[in-house]
């Protein structure tokens, strides 16, 4: 469905359904944001993640204040970003639900930062929260990246309301 927003002069003229439709057009990597607050592990599936700066190495995540993660992230002051691999859709679905015992059956290790990092991911980063900014219903957490690793695995994507894999490179055809 194509939404015409050309007549809209300001963002406030875009109705929420139109806004959501526009966002569904953008593909994003799927990450699980993990943390450990008061000795308890927690994780949440997210796509609102971006790099911010290479010097110092910084990223941001955007977290709804109604999530269980929100207060835990504020309390712990640190988080890991686990970039899911394309065969980890089940993990993306698992951490998008409100289940207890989230990490049961999910391979993970505890890092020196005391953060749970999921095994088999395309990459992970460990971050210390530098700054938080409230915007509407969400909070932006800016994190200083203190450790991380990339693996040779293709990332899982989310587009138009569905989990997807990367298409083969055009150069290969
Ligand atoms: C693909 C996908 C992406 C999501 N991205 C975000 C996000 O960026 N920020 C957010 O607050 N919630 C996001 N959510 C919703 C949370 O995963 C969901 O609310 C989850 O239940 C929160 O868990 P918690 O309450 O245990 O923290 C996303 C869900 C899915 C399926």
TrEMBL record:
Keywords: Oxidoreductase. Pfam families: Flavin_Reduct (PF01613). GO terms for molecular function: FMN binding; riboflavin reductase (NADPH) activity. InterPro entries: Flavin_Rdtase-like_dom, NADH-dep_flavin_reductase, Split_barrel_FMN-bd. This is NADH-FMN oxidoreductase RutF, flavin reductase (DIM6/NTAB) family. Residues 23-165 form the Flavin reductase like domain. SMART domains: Flavin_Reduct.
């Amino acid at each position: 469905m194509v939404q015409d927003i050309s007549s809209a002069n300001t963002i406030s003229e875009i109705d929420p359904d139109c806004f959501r439709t526009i966002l569904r057009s953008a593909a994003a990597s799927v990450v699980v944001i993990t943390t450990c607050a008061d000795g308890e592990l927690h994780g949440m599936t997210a796509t609102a993640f971006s790099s911010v700066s290479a010097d110092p190495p910084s990223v941001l995540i955007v977290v709804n204040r109604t999530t269980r993660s929100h207060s835990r992230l504020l309390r712990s002051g640190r988080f890991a970003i686990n970039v899911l691999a394309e065969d980890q859709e089940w993990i993306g679905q698992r951490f998008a639900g409100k289940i207890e015992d989230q990490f049961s059956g999910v391979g993970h290790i505890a890092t020196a930062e005391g953060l749970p990092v999921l095994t088999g991911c395309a990459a992970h980063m460990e971050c210390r929260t530098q700054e938080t900014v409230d915007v509407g219903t969400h909070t932006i957490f800016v994190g200083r990246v203190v450790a991380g690793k990339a693996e040779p695995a293709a990332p899982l994507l989310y587009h138009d309301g569905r989990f997807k894999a990367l298409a083969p490179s055009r150069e290969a055809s």
